[in-house]
Amino acid sequence: MPLESIRALVSEDIESTDQYIISQLESNIPMITQMIEYVLACGGKRVRPMILLLSAKALAHRGQEHIALAAVIELIHTATLLHDDVVDGSTLRRGNQTAHTIWGKNASVLVGDFLYSRAFQTVVDLRHQRILDIFAKATHYIAEGEILQLINCNNPDTTEAFYFDIIQRKTAKLFEISSQLGALLATNAEEEVNALRDYGMHLGLAYQLIDDALDYSQSAKETGKNVGQDIADGKTTLPLIHAMRKSKGKDLDLLRDAIQTGSSKKLKTILQIIESTDAIKYTADTAKEHSERAKAALSIIPASSYRQALENLSDFVVSRNY
Questions:
Q1: CA distance 29 to 41
Q2: Which three-class secondary structure string do you get for the chain?
Q3: Residues in CB range of 151: below 8 A, 6 or more apart
Q4: Maximum C-alpha span of the chain
Q5: What digits encode the pLDDT tens for the residues 59-97?
Q6: What's residue 223's pLDDT?
Q7: CA quadruple 306, 135, 225, 252: dihedral positive or negative?
Q8: Most exposed: 4, 47, 51, 77, by fewest CB within 10 Å?
Q9: Distance of alpha carbon 173 from alpha carbon 142, whole angstroms
Q10: Where are the domains of the chain?
Q11: What is the reported pLDDT for 201?
Q12: CB 53 within 8 A of CB 17
């Protein structure tokens, strides 16, 4: 199912979330407003806030707190993008110039910090202790994931287990709390809250796996970022890990050297090695396994159009090409 059809179910809430974000980010410092408006205008699928909204509705949440929490999730996501692009030196995001190429690295980092602080203010204002506890621990965990990835850069000996530790922290955790916090707004029933938490975690893993596969299989026009960006950043993602496992001799030496030097000079040959070792298929199949586990976690959630949308979202994540 196309993402637009899933989004349509909560389109009014997503609109309210965007309006809430704008209202929370008013500042008398023009650069803050300009940068945030630019980043938000560059689009984004709003998958994470959508997960929170659908999870809350799937358990019949009444009230407006889900709008504030969905905004918080998007603020954290946007802050991590601003920081990531500076760390990675990325020049393209969603087909647009990254913020740091326009306003500079220092401004991007500081505005990212501004978004983080605003997100925490909003969560504190909800006065829900358990939600605050989960949120605080999660942001700490996400930051650890970013640091783990940074210190592991240019390491061709990265194991599959270590790779999964990184993506569970830096990507899946935000998906996990999106569904978990949405559930907590509606119920205290641990079984349902945990089911939606598990759904989000597996969905997040599937999402990142497909992202990492797309880095080597789609053009910049389709993905909105530079092809082979990961190897240029020295990131040893699953396609590379699998390709190295299946390669030997000159091919293996080339892959290891490219990771160690952060060089995409021989990208055409690297892409041929990745294709010949079925590394993209292996990564996509692993993503599908997590997508199925995400759907299975929803089995105890009452049947509704919202639960169906969460299932459809799991299918979309592994079928997308952007």
A1: 19
A2: CCHHHHHHCCHHHHHHHHHHHHHHCCCCCHHHHHHHHHHHHCCCCCHHHHHHHHHHHHCCCCCCHHHHHHHHHHHHHHHHHHHHHHHHCCCEECCEECHHHHHCHHHHHHHHHHHHHHHHHHHHHHCCHHHHHHHHHHHHHHHHHHHHHHHCCCCCCCCHHHHHHHHHHHHHHHHHHHHHHHHHHHCCCHHHHHHHHHHHHHHHHHHHHHHHHHHHHCCHHHHCCCCCHHHHCCCCCHHHHHHHHHCCHHHHHHHHHHHHHCCCCCHHHHHHHHHHCCHHHHHHHHHHHHHHHHHHHHHHCCCCHHHHHHHHHHHHHHHCCC
A3: none
A4: 61
A5: 999 889 999 999 999 999 999 989 988 887 778 777 788
A6: 53
A7: negative
A8: 4
A9: 7
A10: 3-319
A11: 98
A12: yes
Q: Which tokens hold the place of 113?
A: 């910090």
Confirm if 126 and 69 have CB atoms less than 8 A apart: yes
CA 66 to chain centre: 20
What pLDDT, on a 0 to 100 scale, did the predictor assign at position 224? 57
Query: pLDDT tens digits for 165-176?
Result: 999 999 999 999
pLDDT value for 1: 62
Provide the pLDDT for residue 219. 59
Q: Residue 40 is encoded by which pair of tokens? A: 């938000």
Name the amino acid, one letter, at 65. Answer: E
With 0-12 / 13-18 / 19 or more C-beta atoms within 10 angstroms meaning exposed / middle / buried, residue 50 is buried
Q: Which residues of the chain have pLDDT under 50?
A: none
